Amino acid sequence: MLRQLMRLLTSLWRPFGGRGGDAAGGGGGGDGATGREGRDGLLWYRDLGRCAGGEFSMAVVQANQVLEDQSQIESGPFGTFIGVYDGHGGPDAARYVCDHLFSRFREISSGPQGVTSDGIRRAFLATEESFITLVSQLWNTQPDIATTGCCCLVGVICQRTLYVANLGDSRAVLGKKVGNTGEIAAISLSSDHNANVEAVRQELKAHHPNDPEIVVLKHGVWRIKGIIQVSRSIGDAYMKYAQYNREPINSKFRIPEPMNMPILTANPSITTHHLQPSDSFLIFASDGLWEHLSDQKAVEIVHSHPRAGSAKRLIKAALHEAARKREMRYSDLKRIDKKVRRHFHDDITVIVIFLNHDLMVKGSTQGPQLSVRSALDH
């Protein structure tokens, strides 16, 4: 019942805009503000559109039986809001975040203080609180919702300040011009909250000094309590509250030791960056992209090609690399259907923002108002 209701609500947010020819090169873009929408098998994309921060390219490829990634771009007088939500354990948490996080942000940022790091943090925590309330309401009829969660990567461009908030291991990368050399440098704007990162393991051990198995190495991969890799998320109630870590959830999620405090957190890491004229573009992507492409390789691909189709191009580069690792042709990988495809790569979401500094100087009210959400499923 919940999935049907969320699917109905989500359908109201489907992307809008017509179809038409690509807009290539550095200027101009697509069909109106939203750009041209298209599909290529399990790949959905918008080649180029306009937003208050400049122009954008957007794409997602499905690998799971049900697409677990969600994403959105919202643009208006406040600036531009970019969200990439990488779900796990099912699509429910990612869909919920895509339905509610931006509205929480708008409620808070419409106050006298405007857009602030604290306001973005409050929006994250309010969304977490309301999702956990939903878990509680559905516990007797749909307990598996307690084992769904979502990595959340959000960027907010307000005038000439960029805020990046992150839970989990999606990543934001800046493409920065290197003087007058014509070269581009990759600048990481977020940190991965993944147990395979030494600093994250140390953080977990510091917060749980009496638990020698807070992180466990299984089959060459570090996992928290031997179960999950990410240390921060929205949802994953079973790793935060003892009342949800019990039957009837699947035994693989149950922890035998008493849970005296939350193991995961929904408190995001937030950075601010004052945008400079040499800052060319931003890449926001779920970890499925970064499993196959380095930060530098990704910015070079964007920099060396026309703007139109940049997000789609990055996904295809990642798929080519996934195929190469399995010693198969890209054309053969494309023929593999969803669910089986998950053995070769994850769902991958990419949003590229091409920064228009003149537009940002004039003020956000000069840019188009926009609300675009990636395809719900294929």
TrEMBL record:
It is an enzyme of class 3 (hydrolase). One of its GO terms (biological process) is regulation of intracellular signal transduction. Its EC number is 3.1.3.16. Pfam families: PP2C (PF00481). Signal peptide: none annotated. It catalyses: O-phospho-L-threonyl-[protein] + H2O = L-threonyl-[protein] + phosphate; O-phospho-L-seryl-[protein] + H2O = L-seryl-[protein] + phosphate. One of its GO terms (molecular function) is protein serine/threonine phosphatase activity. InterPro entries: PP2C, PP2C_BS, PPM-type-like_dom_sf, PPM-type_phosphatase-like_dom. Gene3D superfamilies: PPM-type phosphatase domain. SMART domains: PP2Cc. Keywords: Hydrolase, Magnesium, Manganese, Metal-binding, Protein phosphatase. Residues 55-355 form the PPM-type phosphatase domain. Its cofactor is Mn(2+); Mg(2+). Belongs to the PP2C family. PANTHER family: PROTEIN PHOSPHATASE (PTHR47992). This is protein-serine/threonine phosphatase.
